[in-house]
Predict the 3D structure of the following.
Amino acid sequence: MKQEFIIKQNSPHLLLFFAGWGMDKHPFEDYTPSNRDFLVCYDYTSLDFDYSLLHGYETVDVVAWSMGVWAASQIVSSIEQPIANTIAINGTPYPIDDNKGIPEAIFNGTLEGLNEATLKKFQRRMCGSADNFKHFQQVAPQRSVESLKEELAAIGSLYKSCPSKEIKWSEAYIGQNDRIFPAINQQAAWKGITPICNGEESHYDEPLFKHYLETLWTKS
């Protein structure tokens, strides 16, 4: 797992963001949460996490998106600092699951058929609207298709081999137009366990990220 600070100004508070599969820091480096340092995690080829980067923080807020929800579930329970909020966006702790995540056949098909052309199709489906896709293209991750394929294969292996870890989530946000993690599967994963907030967004939605990675923290 890679961890990069977007903001590091020795604040006592940290916003820890677990991005989705195939990401790096570029889609998220323009967000500026108030009164917090901002650390982005991505590339789940490995779940190795440098906990020393969290030393000195009085509180940690966790936001996770897509596959990052599963990655956060594996990591957050071992964080020593007080966790103030844990927010899941368009993802579940069960990334490859016919009922609570991405159906296994779709996951395997994405992995087996991944190339430059199919990646573009995935990104269009992820973004939903033309405006979202245009914005994403302007801030797209700087990674090769080969690295994305390696990461996706690793996620599949790690999910099967890693013990399940449960953490308490403060909120799960579900976009009803999500074409990556089906909304009905997200509902099944969170119902009766975690407070759910529903919206109409697609899997990737720039205004949604602005809210959860920036605007929300101006109030605290």
Notes: The two ends are 29 Å apart (CA to CA). The CA atoms of residues 73 and 166 lie 6 Å apart.
